[in-house]
Amino acid sequence: MILEDNQNVVKPRNSRAARPKVVYQWTVQDVQKWFRRHCYDYYVLYGEKFLQHEIIGRALIRINENQLYRMGIINPDHSQDICREILKLRLKTYILEFRDLERNNLYD
Predict the structure, then answer these.
(1) Contact call for residues 28 and 56 (beta carbons, < 8 A)
(2) How far apart are alpha carbons 53 and 57 in whole angstroms?
(3) Nearest to 84 by CA among 55, 23, 42, 28
(4) Whether pLDDT at 19 is above 80
(5) From residue 25, how far is each of 77, 82, 99, 107 by CA, in Å?
(6) For residues 67 and 35, what is the distance between their CA atoms, to the nearest angstrom?
């Protein structure tokens, strides 16, 4: 009987790491996960409001303080902090989009 030693098998890696789902494709659950991770103190207070309004990724990156107020987040300090995190996400998304555009232009 031949035994194989699987510990020394080298599996080929993809040259590119798996990229997370783009924000525009996020579901309500993806937004909840992001909100819990980046706004934990506020997630406890307002996570249910994001669920009630069925905020998806496409809506999340467009939210402003006025919209948060209409959702029931009336504390200006809280809404500013949440908006700051949304702005960081928006900027990160734009940077990734620009990099993709540049990469595509290089190979065209």
Answers:
(1) yes
(2) 12
(3) 42
(4) no
(5) 29, 20, 18, 25
(6) 16
